[in-house]
Amino acid sequence: MKKPVTAESASALIDERIKELGDWRGKMLARVRTIIHEADPEIVEQWKCMGTPVFSHGGIICTAETYKSVVKMTFAKGAALKDPARLFNSSLDGNVRRAIDVREGEQVDGAALKQLVRAAVALNREGNDKPKTHRAGSKRSA
Asked: How does pLDDT run across 11-62, given as a tens digit for each residue?
């Protein structure tokens, strides 16, 4: 069984990924990471299976994956978020997730991305504030 990755080591692994990419993808990953933390300084960085950077606050906000031709930010609950700047340009047919694919030479609207991150945090908090309901047939303690 693998040991869980601490927040400190996750941040170090993300730093390492940025360095090892050494091209526009590393620079873009560093940029979106900075924007995410500017939007919410309480964001926690995680490192999930297969080396995926994950940004969380009260639940997953988004992942930041790097591929040959795109840096993909997938928002866990993106379908529930308003996107007036129309940043979402991928995974638009899904019921839950939405993604932003950034290609070489493209820019990210930092202000609009901050709004999306803040909305995702608010949505996670809203879900965490709801009272837990019991399923029919489940035993409840008195």
From this structure: 999 999 999 999 999 999 999 999 999 999 999 999 987 789 999 999 999 9
Instruction: Please tell us whether the domain made up of 7-122 is placed in CATH 3.90.1150.200.
Output: yes
Residue 20, C-beta contacts closer than 8 angstroms, at least 6 positions apart: 26
Which residues are paired to 60 by β-bridges?
56
* Residue closest to 89 by CA, chosen among 81, 78, 101, 77: 101
Residues 6+ apart with CB under 8 A from 24: 104, 105
Query: What is the C-alpha separation between 104 and 32, in angstroms, rounded?
Result: 14
Exposed/middle/buried for residue 5 (C-beta within 10 Å: 0-12, 13-18, 19+):
middle
pTM confidence score:
0.84
Backbone angles phi, psi at 127, to 5 degrees: -65, -35
